[in-house]
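Minutes, methods subgroup
Present: GH (chair), OT, SY

1. OT presented the first of two proteins processed in the latest run. Sequence and C-alpha cells recorded below as shown on screen.
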Amino acid sequence: MRYDDEDEIKKALGIKSWRNLSKGKMIKFAAMMPDMDTEVALKIIEQFPEFTKFAMDAVDAMEKRHESTLAANKQSQEHVHRAFQEIREILRGELNKEGLSWEEKKFLIEQIQQTGRLEFQKDSENKKFLDAVLKKVLLGAGAALALGVVFVGGKILGESSDSSEDSLDTPEDSLEA
C-alpha cells in the first residue's frame, strides 16, 4: 500500500496524533517508510526534534529485553543439563550394583543413552530458539537503522534537490534578477 498523506499513516498505525507514537509503533512506522511518499515521511520526521534519541531508546529497550531473555534461557539450560547429569549419576550408581541381571544392566545403559539423546535434543531446540531470538533482534535493529538511514538520506536528498534546482537557473534568470 502506498501512503501519500499523514492521516493515512496515522490510521495505519492506529494513532490519532504523532504524540501517541510509542516505541513499538515507531518500529512499525519504520517498516512502513518504503511505502511512504518521501516528502510525507520527511514532514513527519521533522515533527520529532529528538527523533534519533527516540530510535536509540527503542534499540536500547530491545537490547535489554534480549539480554534478559538470554539470561533466563541460560539459567533454564543450566538447570536442564544439571538435571540430566543427576539422572545419569543415579543410573550409573544403579549400574554399579552387584548382582544385576543382563536385562537390568541393558535397561540402565539404555536409560543413560536416552538421557543423552534427550539432552542433545534440548540443546538443539535451544540453538533454534537462540537463532530465532537473534533474528528478531537483528530485525528490530535493522528497522531502527533504516529509520536513521531514511531520515539522513531523506535530508540529504532534500538538500541536494534544492541545490539542483538552484543550478538549473539559466543565465537569463540571473539577468532578470
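2. SY then presented the second protein from the same run.
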Amino acid sequence: MSSAQAVVTAILFVWLGMVLAISFLEAPLKFRAPQVTLPIGLGIGRMVFRALNTVEVVFAVVTVVAMLFTSFRGVSVAVVIAVLMLAGQLLFVRPGLTRRSNAVLAGEDAPRSNAHYAYIALEVIKTLALLIGGILALIDAVV
C-alpha cells in the first residue's frame, strides 16, 4: 500500500465515522436532552456542523489531492460522489438552514424548514459513498 493509498483509506473511514457520529447520533439526540431548547440546540448544532463541515472540506481536498497519486479504480467514483454531496450541502442547503436558524436565534417565529430533509438525503448518499469508497480503497490497497 502506497502512502497516498493509506491516506485516502484512512481519511475515508475517519470522515465516515465523523459523519455517522455527528449527523446521525449527536444531531438528533441533542434535542431530546433535558433543558435543551430549540435556540440552544440550534446554537450548538451550528457550531458543531460548522466544525464538521470545515474538517470535511479539508478531508475532501486532501483526499482528492492524494487520489492524484494513487491507482485506485472504483474509489474515485465514490470520492467524487461524496465530494459532490458535501458541496451540495454547503452551497445549496446550508444557506437556507442558516437563514432559519438566524431567525429563530433572533427570536422570530420561523416556520419549520424542509431543507433538513434535503440535507439528510445528501448526508445518507455521502455516507454510503464514503463507506463504499473506504471498502474499495481497502480492497484495492490489499490486492
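Chair's summary of item 2: The mean pLDDT is 92.
Next meeting: continue with the remaining queue.
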